[in-house]
Amino acid sequence: MREPVAFGCLAMAALALQACSRDAAPVPRGGSLEVEWVGTDTGKLTAPAVAEWCDSLQVLELRAMHGDTGIALALYPTDSMAPGEYRVVAPERGDSVRPAAAVALRWFAETSIRGFRSDSGSVSLTATGPGAGRFGARLRSVEEGDRLRVTGSFTGLTVTDASPECAGVEPDPDDTMPDVAEEFRETAD
């Protein structure tokens, strides 16, 4: 199953955020995402967003962050990205039950990082170029039993190609960096 790698990259991107802020940012020119959550914690985020298509895994990743708060959505189409409803599932199931979607949300609390991941809900992709849609999902804490309900929307997203590393495979160092010692041995023979 390829999905844990893809969503792992997606979740790590959402988790690799910096500095703390729950204040709403001004709506940027270009793509943006808005989300609100209620449950054991309450908050909201309005931020610039990016959309990247990982061709090798056939997954569309949407990410938005402001300060240390971030959200990531992964959409797993059946064949190609198309407008429609994508059922939100737990991240480890996204790749195996296409079409599907998964959601991750995180922020810094006073003394810890709060991370949540989806278990149910839906993403409605209303347009693909530029991308727009809305979503609603239930999320569960990655470390505790806390639960959240998130609702949000995204608009104006231009999908770009993800880097080759989107599949979670790092380039082989032997293919990218010459081994000078080996080259010297070969020329000395």
Explain how this protein is built:
This protein has 189 residues and is mainly β. It is globular, with a radius of gyration of 19 Å. The termini are far apart. Helix content is 14%, strand content 48%. It is built from 3 helices and 10 strands. The longest helix is centred in the N-terminal third of the chain and has 13 residues, at 3-15. Strands 1-2-3-4-6-7-8-9 form an 8-stranded antiparallel β-barrel.
What are the salient characteristics of this protein?
about 190 residues, mainly beta, 8-stranded antiparallel barrel, about 15% helix, disordered N terminus
Strands, total number:
10
* Topology pattern, helix = H, strand = E: HEEEEEEEEEEHH
Helix content: 10-25%
What is the first-to-last residue Cα distance? 46 Å
Coarse structural class: mainly beta
Overall geometric form? globular
Could you tell me the strand content as a percent range? over 45%
Name the strands of the widest sheet in spatial order: 1-2-3-4-6-7-8-9
Multimeric status of the protein: single chain
Instruction: Report the radius of gyration as a whole number of Å.
Output: 19 Å
Overall pLDDT metric? 80
Q: List low-confidence stretches.
A: 1-29
Largest beta-sheet details: 8 strands, antiparallel, barrel
At a glance:
The chain is mainly β. The protein has helices spanning 3-15, 173-176, 180-188; strands spanning 32-39, 43-54, 59-66, 69-76, 84-87, 100-108, 113-128, 131-141, 147-157, 159-161.
List strands and helices in order, with pairings.
Elements: H1 3-15, E1 32-39, E2 43-54, E3 59-66, E4 69-76, E5 84-87, E6 100-108, E7 113-128, E8 131-141, E9 147-157, E10 159-161, H2 173-176, H3 180-188
Parallel strand pairs: 2-10
Antiparallel strand pairs: 1-2, 1-9, 2-3, 3-4, 4-6, 5-7, 6-7, 7-8, 8-9
